[in-house]
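Re: Re: ligand-bound prediction request (bumping)

Still looking for help on this. To restate: I need the protein modeled with DGJ bound, output as structure tokens. Inputs repeated here so nobody has to scroll up.
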Amino acid sequence: MNTLRPEQSMSIIPVGEHTWAAVTATSTYLFGVETDGEDTRVVQWYWGPRLPEAALAEAARFRTPRSGSSFLDPRATDELLPVDGGRRSGLPSLQATYEGGVRSVELAFTEAVPGPGEIELVLRDKTYGLRVGLHVRCAEDTDVVERWVTVANEGTAAVRFGRLDSGSWIVPEQRAYRYTAVYGGWARETQLQRAELPVGETTFTSRTGTTGHRANPWIMIDAGDATEESGEVWTVALAWSGSWRLTAQHLPEGDVTVTAGFGHDGPSWHLAPGESLRTPAVLGLYSDGGYGAASRAWHHHVRRHVLPTPEEDRPVLYNSWEATGFDVTEAGQLELAGKAAALGVELFVVDDGWFGARDCDSRGLGDWWPNPARFPDGLTRLFTEVRALGMTAGLWVEPEMVNPDSDLYRSRPDWVLHYPDRRRDTMRNQLVLNFARDDVRAWATGWLDGLVREYGLAYLKWDMNRNFSQAGWPDAGDRADMLWIEHTRGVYDVMDELRRRNPGLRIESCSGGGGRVDLGVLRRTDLVWTSDNTDARDRQAIQHGFSYLYPANVMSAWATDSPNPHTRREVPLRYRFHVAMAGTLGIGGDLTRWSAEELAEARDLVAAYKAIRPVVQRGRLHRLAGVPGRAASAVQYVLDDRVVVLAYNPFSLDKRTPGRLRLAGLDPQAVYEVVTSEAAATAPEGSRWHGRTLMSLGLILPTWSPDGPDYRSELLELRRVEAS
Ligand code: DGJ
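Reply:
Sorry for the wait, this slipped through. Here it is.
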């Protein structure tokens, strides 16, 4: 058995016969195989604060007793992969139908296959030749435990899966159960919700073919007493960008489990003899220290183990969409590019409208060559000029889509999702190309790679603007439903191949705003478009919910025009920038209409952002106070010795603002010096404070003073000057 050093983040260690522990720096996840002679189950013995090594075996000694009623299986709720079979009547994570309609899965444990930092527990349904691999991985330097499932049909007849989740997690017994999750819609993504977890099954799902706007695939559960700074929180998150389902099951007997996986109710997966299937990863995190600590642990994990380029500072970008809509011309883009460069913008992205016959949303999608009327000589001159202005070049694409009014659709009508005898319903006048097809993927990879090379593109904004409908794949026969999985994997493959061929390329994931934000797409993208709603006040609530799982360096945020084109709300330039500066700053306004004063102020704000960028993009986030967008609030980032605070107050009428802003996550004994401040009277630049004072007494901010206009905001930076 391995010997653990307290500070060491370990991976999977054997504990006894058929028992293993995933041990992280702060947590232990203990699981093992149990057989009662008849039935085999892989059970979770423990998930919580890290146990001493000597305690691991004792924690796996007795299972929690449950009611002895003959209606209940006393052992039904602590399984890592409850199957539809035997005496189980809870929600199954694996549901298979064998030849002849047999639906009771009976698995027997055959072996454990260890790998680096992971283990596969192999179970088999011998009668029907189904092999199930239950994988647990725990990388060093993260508190997140990762799991997935593989199934292989080693039998002679097909098997059909009604459900194949990545795995179930058991939340240890609590006095009460409360969940935190996000819901939303277009232009109002990632709205936080928190409520008691009802007895029953609470399901969050997407049936759209994408991650979706209505929910995001994660849940946090606590005992009802966690706060931002304290309390135990268990999170489960799914790394998948297609349809999905996550169900928190709260049984009347008290237990709470969370099962999550790809696919929604309805479609089922057909596995012919010799075929196999791997689920996406489902990730679990135990943390103590409230929602704040849970979020920071997720951010750390995303940066360390998910993102392809975590250490790179994201450039300040300009995007033309809100300025021009579809009215993209060389002269118009060049005018914007000149103004953007003067502000200090580093990346210039041309959005929708540059290709085919695309002058509105009803034609041209699929015809990925420069619009001959608008760019008779191609895009070379535009992007050469962009580079001459000192910026890199980026382009908007929507590879999975086609307008019926396009050359592509006229020549390849069979490439879209469809059933032969059903309508082909459009949304935003477009149909979905079937990325499960090899020829479609090869076509997409070809033209995307060609564009990147021809124009020397540093950046693609990969958009996806509609849900699936009539999701048929006529050539695929029994495998047709697999398109729900293989379309998403096809998108991943094309992105991965593009990056392989073009190592300098960076990709932004977008789906009508924030419809494709998840731990799956973030493995091959560098940031995501958070929402089409760029109204600074609305955006604060969106960013707040977003920050629960995803770090600031993936949160693309633009400062745009006032009044905002979506909400007509007027918000000062400074407030708009300060909100966008809480993530990866971009500018999306019509710069030709900004006054000289506004442009000068914007230039200063871009420079200020660049100075704090490493701290925001790579630092530890503390959500300090308030209800963002509705009352006084502040966010703080800490990286090494540097501390950055962005404070906001949208309403002068809110007279209940806190008198002082208390910082967090500092060294209490160390001394911090104010480097940048607008609070000349109360926290002047050069003034020094102990970490303890800043955290326990706090600073007085002009932004939070009860008297003053609407939409006040400020940036404060401190630096640790004397260590404790
Ligand atoms: C939806 C995106 O979210 C917008 O930012 C923009 O790119 C449009 N699509 C373009 O059609």
